[in-house]
Amino acid sequence: MRMYDLIIKKRNGGELSTEEINFFIDSYTKGNIPDYQVSALMMAIYFQKMNMRETSDLTMAMVHSGDILDLSRIEGVKVDKHSTGGVGDTTSLVLTPMVAALGIPVAKMSGRGLGHTGGTIDKLESFEGFSIAITEEQFINNVNTIKLAIMGQTADLAPADKKLYALRDVTGTVDNISLISSSIMSKKIAAGADCIVLDVKVGDGAFMKCFEDAKRLAEAMVNIGKNVGKETIAVISDMDQPLGLAVGNALEVREAIDTLKGNGPQDLLELCLTIGSMMVLLARKASNADEARQMLVKTIEDGSALNKLKEFVAAQGGRTEQVDNPELLPKARHIVEVKSDRAGYVTKIHAQNIGLAAMELGAGRAAKEDVIDLAVGIVLNKKRGDIVAIGDTLAYIHAGNESRVDKAYKDILANYEIDIKKGKDIPLIYDVVK
C-alpha cells in the first residue's frame, strides 16, 4: 500500500477503505510517512470530504494509535462531558460535582487552555495545592471512592490526533467536519467513558459561528459515538456572549462556587442543568429529563454538590478552605470599573474579543509555554438584553499589572454593542442531538 495512491484516490473523490485509513494513521504515527504527503491528503479530505463510515474509521484508527484508558474497575456507568470551547465556560466546575453527588462516576480527562478559551485544569489550579498529576490507580480509586476525579490528558492518548492537528493547524485544513469530529471523539473514546455528552458551542466566541455548522458537527460526533458503540448526546448552546459573568481562572472558580450555593448566573446554571440531565439519563439514574433536572437541582438545595466539590478538591491536594471562603482564592492587585459611554440596550457582546482581552491581561496563553496569572480576568456586569445608562458599570477589569488596564478598558468598550432598540432574543440552548 502506498500513501501516493491514497492521496490520488481521495483527490479524485474516492472513498478510502478501512484498511487504507488504518495504514495511513499507523504509518504516520510511527513516522514512516512524511508531513508533505499527509498535508496533501488532509487537503484532499478538506475538499472532497469523508462519509460517515470513513469518519468513524478515522476516529477509531486514531483511538488505537495509543493507549486506551481502562475504566472497567470503576463501578457504574461512566459518563464523560466535553465542550468545544468558549469564553467563561465554567460548566465542568459546576456540573461534575452535581452529577457526582448523585452517585454517578465522573472520570474526566481535561486539558489546559490555549488562546481565548480557558482550560478546566488551569481553573482548578486556582485551589492552592490542587494537582492533576495523579496516577491512573489514584484516578480510578478517587472515582470509586468519591465519584469524581479529573486528570490531565496524557501524551499516549490518541497520539495520531496530536500529530495531525499540529499539521492541520499550519496547512489551513482545520475547518472540516470529519477532521474536527474525529479529533474530538478519538480523545473522548480513548479516555474510556461508556457514554459521552457533548456541549457544542455556536456563536461569536465559538469555533462554529453559525447554527447550521454547529448542527452538522454535533450530528457527526453523535453518529461516530453510535457507530463505535458509545451512547452520545450533543447539546448545541449559545456562545454569542460569554457564559456567566466571569472570564478568568480564579474568577470562574468563585463563580462556580456561587452557582453551587444557588447564587450563580442563570445562564450558567441552566446550561449545567441541561447537560447534567443528559448525563443522568445516560447513567440510567432517571427515567426522563425533568426527573433528572430535579435531582440535580436538589444537589444544590441540600448542599451535596458543594460538599462534593470540597471532597474532590481535598482528594487531589487542594485547599478546601477556599471553597468555604472564596475570598482566599487568588486576587488581582487592581480592579477597575469599565463605565458605559452610551445609553440603551446591550444587543451584543463580542465573546471572542472579550476572551482575547482577558488573555492579554494574563488569564490565557497565546503560546503553550506562556505562564498564566490565575487572579486576572474580566467580570461582566451587564449582559445581552440589559438596559444601560451613561456611566453605568459594564464590567470589572481584574489586572495584575496596571499598564495593561487601559487597553483592556478600550477593548471591553469596543466589544459591547449598545442600541436604543432591544435586540432579538437568542436561545441559550439551540438543540439537543441524540
Secondary structure topology:
Blueprint lengths: L2 H9 L6 H12 L5 H14 L3 H12 L15 E5 L7 H10 L5 E5 L9 H5 L11 H11 L1 E5 L6 H13 L5 H14 L4 E8 L8 H17 L3 E8 L7 E2 L1 H12 L5 H17 L6 H13 L2 H12 L5 H4 L9 E6 L4 E6 L1 H13 L13 E4 L6 E2 L4 E7 L5 H10 L1 E4 L9 E5 L1
Parallel strand pairs: 1-4, 2-3, 4-5
Antiparallel strand pairs: 5-13, 6-9, 7-11, 8-10, 8-12, 9-11
Task: Give a written overview of the molecule.
This protein has helices at residues 3-11, 18-29, 35-48, 52-63, 91-100, 120-124, 136-146, 159-171, 177-190, 211-227, 249-260, 266-282, 289-301, 304-315, 321-324, 351-363, 405-414, and strands at 79-83, 106-110, 148-152, 195-202, 231-238, 246-247, 334-339, 344-349, 377-380, 387-388, 393-399, 416-419, 429-433. The chain is α/β, with parallel strands linked by helices and 434 residues long. A four-stranded mixed beta sheet has the order 1-4-5-13, sandwiched between helices. The protein has a four-stranded antiparallel beta sheet with strand order 6-9-11-7. Strands 10-8-12 form a three-stranded antiparallel beta sheet. Helix 10 (211-227) links the parallel strand 4 (195-202) and strand 5. The protein is globular and about 70 Å long.
